[in-house]
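Progress against Task 2.4 (sequence-to-structure conversion) is shown through the following example record, which the project officer requested during the mid-term review.
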Amino acid sequence: MNPCRSQRLAAVLLLFVAGGLAWGCTGRKQVPFGLRDAGQDSGETATDVEEGAPGLPVGESYGPDQVEVRVAESTLVLKLGYALAALRLNLDGKEPVDALVVSADTQQVRLQAAYPRGLDVSSRAIDSFLVPEHCVGPTASIGQLSSSLVAARVEHQCETGKRTNLWLVTIEAQPRVRERITVLPPNEKSSADIAIELAVEDRDADGYEDVVANLRIGKTDVPLAWLDRPGGFARDVSEPEARLKELADGAWESFSANSKSASTRALAVLDAFVALCRESGAARVGLSGTQGLQCQQSPATARAAAVAISASIRRGSFVRALELQRWWQNPALQPSPEERNLVQAAWRKAKANALASWRAIDSEGGRASLYFRDADTLVIDGRAPRQVQLSSGIKTQLSEAELVPAIRDPSNRFAVRGVRATCAGFEAELGPIRGRQSHRAPIERRSSKSPCRTPIDRPATVFEWAVLGWAPQGLVAASGDLLRVVPLNQFAKPAGRPIDLGTTSPLPAPIRGARITTDGTRYVIPHPEGVVVRDWRNGGAGLWLRPADWEKVPGDVRSIAISPDGRKIALQKGSEIRLLSW
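Structure tokens generated for the chain above:
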């Protein structure tokens, strides 16, 4: 036979064989860990096995009180707890097959490798984690994620919802945990549903398998990736900020055309930041036993906050806007001048709920303390204490003996002297009405995650925490949208943790104070661009007041008070003291 012809026939035959092999092999599709394989028997439920990629081994899940696990021809008998799930696979390259076993007791969940040795089974601990006391009913599933990785999922039912732990484990003679991902139950600041799915793909095109955890927070998808490096897994630190920036930029660009849709996108960014980032103080996603990812600065979240604030102002939800504006107090969310300008413009353009007017009634160079003695009498406690009769404009000087603190306890023994911002947080300074002694009661503690780098002890500004008044239950304090009771005993000492009030909470009464009515139904919230009057009788709605010539009076708001009938407001803006009515 002609040698050339022989070579051509051999090549054709080789191509045919290769093609047959390719046709006969099922191409391994990248399937997220936890999703059902289309080729699986439809009678098998997700509670029986943890799904892996097609063609890869999946494990078996057990009911309660399973203390024996079959491994090859031998049996592993657990000394502690009971088995939740097991995956049989060859770890050490020797027959017979080995197993990875997830077990638990009331206090701890364990992952171990089991190796049959004749009729016995030896085991090796791989990892474990403690279970909070309020979490019960653990379930687990386990499956092979790729040729070199196994994923094990453990779920507990806790007081506020589901707690999930995911182990990523290497397949080798001595298995190692590459990562443990924890998703905590909802908390006061983060109530969104969080789902997590794992997938394997070569994200950086280096020929090695990387792992992607696709997190769905509410309706928002955020990917977290671990790149396979010679020294181990390295998390791609560009996420979650890259995804949050994509969402925030989309919200920013669409705000003018569709503020409602933009607000939805922006709020999704805020929800994701809270759930993911340690800096939020309420993170629910953790790695290797820590709570929250270290996001540091998040310009994307600061931008999203600007959109959400502006959208709330545009639709007249002024109290909600104040609530959202508190985000900018977080050191990780520093807004740009452009973002501040957007919010400032929104406040200036906000449609007032009522036609407000104001007039000058006095002036004071330093900061004065204002309060109404009655509906027609305003007390100005400054360098020269005096009272002004509003109907006539008559001013009367007051002696120290005639001055009565606006915020005092029901027994007329103690008074509030101010609020201080310290390294401990915000504290009310209290003392006898006639005396120099003082002590402090905490209003808001500083988070341990926000260390005080430079010791401080300064007066709180009018826009931070302020004590509105004193009720029989204790101090009534406010900061923007937040209303809080600080319980005190008969000696004006702390008598329990502060209690936040919601719009359905009963109000403490009667209240003695400058910025709140006696029955507590209305209180005033100062803002650089106007004044918000919150009406508790109307579901906590905010009334936005901004006189037409607000900008013509120079200076910031330094002091503010509301009349007993809730219809007039006295404020010090710059050096002018004005009476605002509507």
